[in-house]
Structure formats: structure tokens, C-alpha cells
Amino acid sequence: MATTRASKRRRLNGNELKGKEEDKQVEQIMETGTGKTIEKLSTGENKGKSPLVVFAHGAGAPSSSDWMVRWKGVLAKALNAVEVVTFDYPYIAGGKRKAPPKAEKLVEFHSDIVRKSMAKYLGHPLILAGKSMGSRVSCMVAGGENIAAAAVICLGYPLKGINGAVRDEMLLQLTVPVIFVQGSKDGLCPLELLEVVRKKMNSVTALHVIEGGDHSFKIAKKHLQSIGSNQEAAEDQAVQAIATFISSNLDER
Description:
By secondary structure, the chain is an alpha/beta fold. It has 7 helices and 9 strands. The protein is globular and about 50 Å long.
């Protein structure tokens, strides 16, 4: 099940410009460690280029987990990505198993990865994606300086904190298109609460619900049998919804 809601205020982009100006955009990319800013005038030549996807893992498992490896592959194929970049946050890199810090403390490291990747693929649209905590940090990064994200993909956004607090501050600040993929039985993101937040967001948003899915989209066998489906088919539908949303928003740039 997928729903899309138009924003109250659309992000300023090339569609609001006329004539030749419609195809022009200035990209600023900060080179890591040098402090040097690269400015590249992007014209219509860049339209249709394969997107660059930077994909962040969740709090409890690194980028090498089976879940991340599988979704990296399906996103690469569905989006025809020039590359899907994955990485490990410092607290879990190299086999470490420390408790994750607050999401805000991961933004600088995450942004550094994004800038390096952007510098490697100049002119390619940037898509930020993340699982759970990684999606929350991705939203924070998308709102940062010199990060020209075209869209954000949130796979299991953790809207509710452990203490029950609603973590919607960054979502309400976003102007970048966002698609949420959520399991209907995900306790960290009640769908009715997410709908309230989406109505307040300024960006274009979409929601695809995996019926019976938990926080990692896993569906109980009994539920699959009752609907005559399987896990792969349910996730394939989610991937198709993502591809449709990203394609439509890239076409508007």
C-alpha cells in the first residue's frame, strides 16, 4: 500500500525557472579535509544520469549485515544507481559492538562520506537512504550545507524514541522529497502517528506500507499464508514504490 502527499510548499528547483535557466543549477561540493569548495555548473546534460545512493545502516548491525547487503543490491538495480555507497559508523566499525551515540553525533561523519561520494560522481543526482537510525541521520544530513540531495529513502524510520518521544524535528525542517517504507507492525513508527507528521511536513512525501511487517519488514509466516504471498513479493512491491517515487522526483528536477 502506497500513498503520496503533495507538499504545502514545494522546494525551489529548476521547474520554477523559465527558458534556459530551467536547466541550470549550481552544485557546491566540499572536498573532505581540504576545506576547498568545488563549484560545478550543472546543465541539462546531467538530466537522466544514474543516481548516486549513499545508504546508511541501522543502530544494531553494520553495512555487512545480510539485510543491508540484500537491500543494497535491490536499490542498485531498481534505481539503476551509478553506485550504492555503504559504510560503517565509527562506533560499530571494525567489529566493534558499542552502543550507538545520539544520532546528531553521527551527522558530521555521515556528511563526510556523502561529500567524498559526491566529489567522485559529479553531476549525478544524490539519493540518501537509510535503515532505521541510518534513515534518521540521512534526513539530518539532507538538510546540511553543501549536500544537494534529490530525495531521501527512509526504510523503517524510528519515529518514536525509547522513551516514547516523537522524533519529528528534522522531518518538519526537510524540503527534500522523502519516501517512507514502514512495516504495519513496527512499534517504533505507528502509522497513524507518521500520518500526522507527514501532514505537517513541508516536503513531498510518500508512504509504502508492508502489511504485517515489523521494524525490519519481516512478516510472520501465518500472515503470509493468510494473504497468499511471500516475503520476497512483499519487499518487491516496496522496491517498486521506491523506484517510482525516485523516478518521478528526479524527472521534476
